[in-house]
Q: What sequence folds into this?
């Protein structure tokens, strides 16, 4: 595992700060980008390392890549080529979840399960009747939460007070392995709690402001779930959410076919833009539109010759703008105006999100914002999910009698 240097200043990105990759250089007719801390630019897809490479304090987890990695060379019309790695169909991801929640029978406070009310006709629900400080997270509640998260994609629990790190982590572990890839602020109550604020003395600032995104695109397996708990809110610190499957469904046949053939190329990773959600199997998107994360889009994937074409800046920017417009569509976009004590469970793979400019409004003007965030490891890479779905689609039914 490679150690990530501890940042000396607040990191505005949703990732650990790493040394800056080198400028593209040409070798053997191809242009490459190298990272001083890792073997190549797309380190997330070219490693057998465990997730402890980002944090020695994260929950125990081991990712096993059984088939050999395949190297895809990317070339472009005047654009810098990128050497990246992809994983073959059949990748076997084995995890040790180490669940901490009680899987026995349990109920919410008051002896009954919770109730839901819609946030938006398409997605999101406010949850009433469940207080995590008092509730025993038994099998019945955990199963219901998982089902409702898959259905609604965003669950907002109000009036939770200031939950301890232990309670938030116990809840988080009910959804999988807590994966910490971020800087621990001195005031964070636990190494797995990412503390965010509009005051650098209280938490990391400028988080989530780079652009619309899902969390963890710099990882081979982007985060599956994120849990947001607000110890304190400022008057302008809201978050926008937009449903990704609905965006895909709005595309006409020609544009959807084009998007299905695209790859998002980040500063250190590559993912298919469109792939099946691991739980619902509905088409979803993998992207980060922030300048510090976005490099370009690439088209196609020739499995035989292991090549793909990098789109030039003009074409990449056009697709980026198109996606931004769809995310910002007022018919789908929801603004959550947080209240103190709110806790939100977010399906990170099903919703894009973006922190409003007001999240960084000065404390003196709008009050103190404190967010405690936990993130849950993804169980498979978007590429593996897409290739697996394509493989199943092309499998012919048996003709045995």
A:
């Amino acid at each position: 595992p490679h150690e990530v240097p501890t940042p000396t200043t607040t990191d505005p990105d949703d990732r650990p700060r790493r040394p800056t990759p080198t400028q593209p250089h040409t070798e053997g007719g191809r242009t490459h980008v190298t990272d001083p801390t890792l073997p190549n630019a797309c380190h997330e897809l070219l490693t057998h390392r465990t997730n402890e490479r980002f944090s020695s304090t994260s929950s125990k987890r081991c990712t096993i890549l059984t088939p050999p990695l395949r190297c895809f060379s990317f070339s472009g019309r005047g654009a810098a080529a990128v050497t990246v790695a992809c994983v073959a169909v059949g990748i076997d991801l084995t995890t040790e979840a180490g669940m901490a929640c009680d899987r026995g029978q349990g109920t919410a406070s008051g002896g009954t399960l919770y109730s839901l009310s819609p946030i938006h006709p398409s997605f999101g629900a406010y949850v009433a009747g469940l207080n995590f400080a008092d509730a025993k997270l038994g099998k019945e509640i955990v199963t219901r939460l998982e089902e409702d998260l898959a259905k609604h994609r965003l669950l907002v629990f109000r009036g939770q007070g200031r939950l301890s790190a232990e309670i938030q982590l116990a809840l988080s572990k009910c959804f999988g392995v807590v994966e910490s890839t971020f800087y621990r602020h001195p005031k964070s109550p636990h190494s797995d709690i990412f503390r965010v604020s509009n005051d650098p003395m209280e938490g990391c600032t400028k988080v989530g402001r780079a652009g619309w995104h899902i969390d963890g695109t710099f990882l081979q397996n982007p985060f599956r779930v994120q849990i947001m708990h607000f110890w304190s809110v400022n008057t302008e610190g809201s978050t926008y959410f937009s449903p990704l499957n609905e965006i895909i469904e709005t595309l006409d046949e020609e544009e959807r076919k084009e998007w299905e053939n695209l790859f998002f190329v980040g500063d250190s990773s590559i993912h298919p833009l469109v792939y099946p959600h691991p739980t619902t199997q509905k088409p979803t998107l993998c992207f980060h539109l922030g300048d510090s994360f976005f490099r370009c889009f690439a088209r196609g994937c020739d499995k035989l010759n292991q090549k793909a074409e990098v789109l030039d800046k003009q074409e990449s920017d056009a697709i980026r703008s198109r996606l931004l417009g769809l995310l910002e569509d007022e018919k789908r976009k929801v603004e959550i105006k947080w209240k103190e004590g709110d806790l939100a469970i977010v399906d990170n793979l099903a919703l894009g999100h973006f922190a409003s400019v007001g999240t960084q409004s000065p404390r003196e003007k709008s009050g103190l914002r404190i967010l405690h965030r936990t993130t849950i490891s993804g169980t498979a890479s978007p590429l593996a999910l897409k290739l697996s779905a394509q493989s199943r689609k092309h499998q012919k039914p048996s003709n045995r009698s």
Q: What stands out?
A: The two ends are 52 Å apart (CA to CA).
